[in-house]
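Instructor's aside before we start: the two examples that follow are unrelated to each other. I chose them only because their records fit on one page, so don't look for a connection. First example below.
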Amino acid sequence: MHSSIRYNIILRSAGSLLLWIALAANAAPSSPDDEQILRSKYASLAQRLEHNQFHKPLVLDSIEGQDELKGDIYAVMDFPYSQLKASLTDPAQWCEVMILHLNTKYCRSNLEHQQPVLQVNIGSKTPQALADSERIVLKFDVLAATSDFFEIALAAQHGPLGTSDYRIALGGVSLPGGKTFIHLTYSYSTGMLGRTAMRAYLATVGRGKVGFTAAEKDSDGEAGYIGGVRGVVERNAMRYFLAIDSYMGSVAASKDAQFDMRLRSWFAATEQYARQLHEISWDQYATMKRAERQRMLAEP
């Protein structure tokens, strides 16, 4: 690939570096105390789940290390545990979740050497040919699936733009009243190419964009939020959580109505956090995603 074409792809895709991040790229099998760890986390977060800027039981944390970025979301979801486990331990259903995100251009579940994988193309927040996006292959593993605890992990050794150890994981435990406590984690490692791409993004189209963690007030006295790479990971973590929530909210609807219901739910939810998440209009989003899903269903 010519260097100029490669650089253009880097600039278009840099904002999506954090789409996939989480717990278990090379995760070991679940240990017997994993469920208890998650339940203990639920108890320790009781105050933050009740009182936060999201006005819902949700906590978002992010960490920027020397070569790694990570985002964690903990939330109470208004769906029965059995429903989440049945849906989200199925790799094919993850493509229905992922396609809701602005930067996902394509997703297909397959088997490679008897291992479930997701073939995912990541690109711009606007319509884009698959040839101009970047494909990663995520191994899909169900680490646990009991009557009260599940955990899944997706892993890609090589990600786009020089990144490595792409990881995404979701764990959940049952709660009383037909609810579920979930932990969604994203992480990846960056090399020189990834850091260069991110600097280019933050200096151009990403300039002025913010995350959700509070910071000092801005010059106008408005509430301040962190920016930079932590802002990027927090925005994508929230977009991905809202995709899961929107997907789950549609599972009881008729097959014909589900996708449009998810689109409307996801877009409306992101607009509640317009300062962080607004990118394009509803008409632009709906048109793009309907075309991308048709492509996803048609492409081998």
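Example two begins here.
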Amino acid sequence: IKETHVAFLGLDRYMGKPLTIIKWQKIHPADGQPRFYSYPDDCYWHKDEKFANQPTCGFRWYLMPLQIVPDSESKTYQDQVAMLPAEYEVPFAVEEVGKCLLYHRKNGTFLNPNQYGRCQDVSLDGLRVDVGRFDFGGLVVDGWADEERLDGVGVAASRKYPNLVQP
């Protein structure tokens, strides 16, 4: 499993504040690595989106494949989800962001450098949130319609595990 997956402890808070995608961006400034492709001061589309400002990782262990699910590109989101084994689920974007950034911090390399992993989140305009593809040295958070069958857009996955602390 260590050749194909990464394990990490998901945290819901960092320095007392919710660890959202926006918080991940503040922790990883544009002049460092790993970094994001765009930041709130840029003209980036997700700065006011709920998925970027509210969800956090659950306080639990995550076991996630290093890459998108094999052969999941060029399929609709529904077809991609149907490919997942029963013990896996589609992660939220904040979980996929955490995986990518933590892996880079430990190993110095980017996961999915030319691909996006579709996540559970949907933007206000109905686009499925995708994470991956390190354009210009930064992690991209993007969105595509569920019906689109695109090269380079597969599905992300996470092993199902319970939270360590129940709300």
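The first helix runs from residue 21 to 27.
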